[in-house]
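Lecture notes, part 5. Sequence design as translation. It can be helpful to think of inverse folding as translation between two languages: the language of shapes and the language of residues. The source text, in C-alpha coordinates, appears below.
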Protein backbone atom coordinates (compact mmCIF):
# COMPACT_ATOMS: atom_id res chain seq x y z
CA UNK A 1 0.00 0.00 0.00
CA UNK A 2 1.40 3.37 -1.02
CA UNK A 3 0.55 6.76 0.39
CA UNK A 4 -1.66 7.41 -2.67
CA UNK A 5 -3.78 4.29 -2.16
CA UNK A 6 -7.17 4.88 -0.59
CA UNK A 7 -7.54 3.62 2.97
CA UNK A 8 -9.10 0.17 3.24
CA UNK A 9 -12.86 0.10 3.65
CA UNK A 10 -14.15 -0.18 7.18
CA UNK A 11 -15.29 -3.68 8.13
CA UNK A 12 -18.74 -4.00 9.69
CA UNK A 13 -19.87 -7.20 11.41
CA UNK A 14 -23.54 -7.97 10.77
CA UNK A 15 -25.28 -10.40 13.12
CA UNK A 16 -28.79 -11.23 11.94
CA UNK A 17 -30.58 -14.58 11.75
CA UNK A 18 -33.37 -13.62 9.34
CA UNK A 19 -31.94 -14.25 5.86
CA UNK A 20 -33.68 -11.51 3.90
CA UNK A 21 -33.11 -8.88 6.55
CA UNK A 22 -29.45 -9.91 6.80
CA UNK A 23 -29.05 -9.69 3.03
CA UNK A 24 -30.74 -6.26 2.92
CA UNK A 25 -28.53 -4.89 5.68
CA UNK A 26 -25.38 -6.31 4.07
CA UNK A 27 -26.35 -4.87 0.68
CA UNK A 28 -27.01 -1.42 2.12
CA UNK A 29 -23.70 -1.44 4.00
CA UNK A 30 -21.84 -2.38 0.81
CA UNK A 31 -23.64 0.46 -1.01
CA UNK A 32 -22.13 2.80 1.58
CA UNK A 33 -18.66 1.62 0.48
CA UNK A 34 -17.99 -0.55 3.51
CA UNK A 35 -17.02 -4.21 3.80
CA UNK A 36 -19.36 -6.65 5.49
CA UNK A 37 -18.23 -9.41 7.81
CA UNK A 38 -21.01 -11.98 7.64
CA UNK A 39 -23.90 -11.79 7.90
CA UNK A 40 -23.56 -14.15 10.84
CA UNK A 41 -26.67 -15.99 12.02
CA UNK A 42 -25.77 -17.39 15.45
CA UNK A 43 -24.23 -16.26 18.71
CA UNK A 44 -21.65 -19.07 18.63
CA UNK A 45 -20.51 -18.23 15.10
CA UNK A 46 -20.37 -14.52 15.87
CA UNK A 47 -18.14 -15.11 18.88
CA UNK A 48 -15.82 -17.24 16.74
CA UNK A 49 -15.73 -14.58 14.00
CA UNK A 50 -14.83 -11.93 16.60
CA UNK A 51 -12.04 -14.10 18.00
CA UNK A 52 -10.63 -14.82 14.54
CA UNK A 53 -10.86 -11.32 13.02
CA UNK A 54 -8.26 -8.81 14.05
CA UNK A 55 -9.90 -5.82 12.45
CA UNK A 56 -13.58 -5.12 13.05
CA UNK A 57 -14.47 -1.46 12.79
CA UNK A 58 -18.06 -1.71 13.93
CA UNK A 59 -21.02 -4.03 14.31
CA UNK A 60 -24.76 -4.15 13.85
CA UNK A 61 -26.45 -6.78 16.01
CA UNK A 62 -29.94 -8.13 16.17
CA UNK A 63 -30.66 -8.74 19.85
CA UNK A 64 -32.49 -12.04 19.36
CA UNK A 65 -30.35 -14.28 17.16
CA UNK A 66 -31.77 -17.74 16.58
CA UNK A 67 -33.59 -17.65 19.90
CA UNK A 68 -30.48 -16.57 21.83
CA UNK A 69 -29.77 -13.09 23.13
CA UNK A 70 -26.81 -11.41 21.46
CA UNK A 71 -25.48 -9.80 24.62
CA UNK A 72 -22.39 -12.07 24.78
CA UNK A 73 -21.53 -10.78 21.29
CA UNK A 74 -22.01 -7.19 22.42
CA UNK A 75 -19.83 -7.82 25.48
CA UNK A 76 -17.03 -9.34 23.35
CA UNK A 77 -17.13 -6.39 20.96
CA UNK A 78 -17.25 -3.78 23.70
CA UNK A 79 -14.29 -5.46 25.46
CA UNK A 80 -12.32 -4.96 22.24
CA UNK A 81 -13.46 -1.36 21.92
CA UNK A 82 -15.54 -2.06 18.81
CA UNK A 83 -18.46 0.34 18.46
CA UNK A 84 -21.82 -1.28 17.84
CA UNK A 85 -25.50 -0.66 17.43
CA UNK A 86 -28.50 -2.91 17.86
CA UNK A 87 -30.89 -3.41 14.92
CA UNK A 88 -33.91 -4.99 16.51
CA UNK A 89 -37.60 -5.10 17.15
CA UNK A 90 -36.98 -4.90 20.91
CA UNK A 91 -37.85 -1.69 22.70
CA UNK A 92 -35.66 0.05 25.27
CA UNK A 93 -37.51 -1.59 28.17
CA UNK A 94 -36.25 -5.01 27.05
CA UNK A 95 -32.59 -3.99 26.82
CA UNK A 96 -30.50 -4.25 30.01
CA UNK A 97 -29.32 -0.95 31.48
CA UNK A 98 -25.68 -1.85 30.87
CA UNK A 99 -26.34 -1.31 27.14
CA UNK A 100 -28.02 2.06 27.54
CA UNK A 101 -25.18 3.75 25.64
CA UNK A 102 -25.58 1.41 22.66
CA UNK A 103 -27.80 2.89 19.97
CA UNK A 104 -30.87 0.87 19.00
CA UNK A 105 -32.43 1.08 15.55
CA UNK A 106 -35.80 -0.51 14.81
CA UNK A 107 -36.10 -2.92 11.92
CA UNK A 108 -36.48 -2.61 9.06
CA UNK A 109 -33.41 -0.41 8.75
CA UNK A 110 -32.97 1.70 5.65
CA UNK A 111 -29.75 2.87 4.04
CA UNK A 112 -30.18 6.31 5.60
CA UNK A 113 -30.64 4.75 9.05
CA UNK A 114 -27.55 2.57 8.53
CA UNK A 115 -25.60 5.59 7.39
CA UNK A 116 -26.71 7.43 10.53
CA UNK A 117 -25.80 4.43 12.72
CA UNK A 118 -22.36 4.16 11.19
CA UNK A 119 -21.72 7.88 11.43
CA UNK A 120 -22.79 8.02 15.08
CA UNK A 121 -21.48 4.73 16.39
CA UNK A 122 -18.62 3.74 14.13
CA UNK A 123 -17.10 6.89 12.67
CA UNK A 124 -17.08 8.75 15.99
Amino acid sequence: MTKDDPPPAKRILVVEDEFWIAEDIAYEIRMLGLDVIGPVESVETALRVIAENGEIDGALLDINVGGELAYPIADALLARGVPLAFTTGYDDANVPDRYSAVARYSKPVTRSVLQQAIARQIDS
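The translated text above is only one of many valid answers, since several sequences can fold into similar shapes. Strands lie at 11-15, 35-40, 58-61, 64-65, 68-69, 84-88, 103-106.
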